[in-house]
From TrEMBL:
Residues 26-86 form the PARP-type domain. Keywords: Activator, DNA-binding, Metal-binding, Nucleus, Transcription, Transcription regulation, Zinc. Pfam families: C_LFY_FLO. This is Floricaula/leafy-like transcription factor. Belongs to the FLO/LFY family. It comes from Bauhinia variegata. It comes from the Eukaryota. Probable transcription factor.
Length: 133
């Protein structure tokens, strides 16, 4: 359920979505630093951003996990209602996170079908999703 703590641990979906938002904030900080120094400015979350996050004390953010669940986050950003309905349905059935992660692809395909099958354009048009693709 949205807002629900996963058995008192920091591993619920809301917490994961919060980590994506934190990465976005770190990207903005890296971009600002690069602009101030006259350096090349990253437009996406790269290794440079993960290194910056680690130096800033956010070592709990790791690239493999963020890459593993990125489609999940994309669905949440593109259609939060469908995302929350899936979460609720899977919780009621007692399904695990892996099953939910697989289920998020079908709604993303439906979104792509409605918009000419260009999922890259859909992702690139959304400011919170475009930084991951």
């Amino acid at each position: 359920e949205p807002g629900e703590v996963a058995r008192g641990k920091k591993n619920g979906l809301d917490y994961l979505f919060h980590l994506y938002e934190q990465c976005r904030e770190f990207l903005i900080q890296v971009q600002n630093t690069a602009k101030d120094r006259g350096e090349k400015c990253p437009t996406k979350v790269t290794n440079q951003v993960f290194r910056y996050a680690k130096k800033a004390g956010a070592s709990y953010i790791n690239k493999p996990k963020m890459g593993h669940y990125v489609h999940w986050y994309a669905l949440h950003c593109l259609d939060e209602q469908v995302s929350n309905e899936l979460r609720r349905a899977f919780k009621e059935r007692g399904e695990n996170v892996g099953a939910w992660r697989q289920a998020c692809y079908k709604p993303l395909v439906a979104i792509a079908a409605r918009q000419g099958w260009d999922i890259d354009a859909i992702f690139n048009a959304h400011p919170r999703v475009s930084i991951w693709y």
